[in-house]
Amino acid sequence: MEKFQQFLERVLGPVMSVLGSNRYLLAVRDGVVGALPLIIVGSFFMILANPPLPSDWGVYQWLVENAAVILLPYRMTMYIMALYAVFGMGHSLARSFDLDALQGGVLSAMAFLLTINPVNIPAEAAEVAGASGFVLPMASLGSGGLFVGIVVTFFSVNVYRFTQHSKFKITMPDQVPPAVTKSFEALTPTLIVMLVIGAITYWIGFDWNGTITAIISPLVVATDSIPGVLVITFLYGFFWFFGIHGASIVGSVARPLWLTLLEANATAAAAGVPGTELPAIAAEPFFQWFVFIGGAGCTIGLGIMLVTVCKSKYAKDLGRIAFLPCIFNINEPLIFGTPIMLNLTLAIPFVLTPMILGVFAYIVTSLGLVNRVIVSAPWTLPGPIGAFLATGGDWRGAVLCIVCILISLVIYYPFVKIWDKQYLAQESEDSAAVEAA
Known about the structure:
Distance between the termini: 32 Å
Shape: globular
Strand content: under 5%
Largest sheet: 2 strands, antiparallel
Radius of gyration: 25 Å
Strand order of the largest sheet: 1-2
Order of helices and strands: HHHHHHHHEHEHHHHHHHHHHHHH
């Protein structure tokens, strides 16, 4: 066993480290995570427009009648999430290349908007459409545009990088303020990006969103399936086994797909589709509240074990420190304190538990026993509360979350007992050595 662990550390460890520090994956993660506060807050207006209240209540009737207005903050956040995320991705990627981060974000946002073909609404149709002149279709600014945004962000920042390193830029005298100098230095990459992206979109007539959507559609479909759930949950645990944060790699790739699924559900819910008949199951909140409860590996089960059944002093002390954060889905103290990395005794349930829970929760949801997720609730909420909100106020979501926690306890129990006995034996040896001395 020890030789196998050393082999994994020696052969796969360096590869995992390289992937975990990849600047492009980190840029995607930073951009999407930067937009999450807008997505989370905006999602709550979806609950307000579809309140979990008895239909005969007066407040329910008022909320439903004014749903169009209530949903406007949602439409200006989650509906155009790609625009916010692209700016964040450009900012992060430019900073990783030691370029001006603000210019990187602005350049990326401009490139993204240039991939969208405005629609010209004639004046005679203004009364019906509610607008006239050129307007941007919001569908291209939502989660469906994230992958377009990723492509043009990588292109734009690398053009910026090329012009900076090749000196193919406008330089200013040293007496000019730095802010003004940076603006002039960005003129050349701005011109190049505008001409290239603009030509592809408006002169060639390339449909960025339609083409890339067609390419990634199989990935979206695969993500919203039991095999997709199994692959994602396995990879999360696999990377953590090497001390690499699973969200840095798997989350960076999967989150745009998850957001596409979540937006599809939210849009259907806003149109009045019942919660059990929404189009997608495995959006990100599904993993958050039914799979990774307490953090990656569903470590809420491990935390409960430490404070209830463990007998070694180390396990009890760790449990007292790590259990409370784990309730709020902060499990780094548990992961690094046990530790999970290169520890097959605990890594097995750490990987296995989310896979079992993912399949179980997927089947329960697909049978219509629980509403499908429509809201990205704050990730620091305790599991049952987050599950209740994520499913649009469905109490069955909270029950499913509790059942998943109970299942995690059953899976973790035998492995935690083995791990605890190892520490008990070590502590007994240490005590005997002290007494002998």
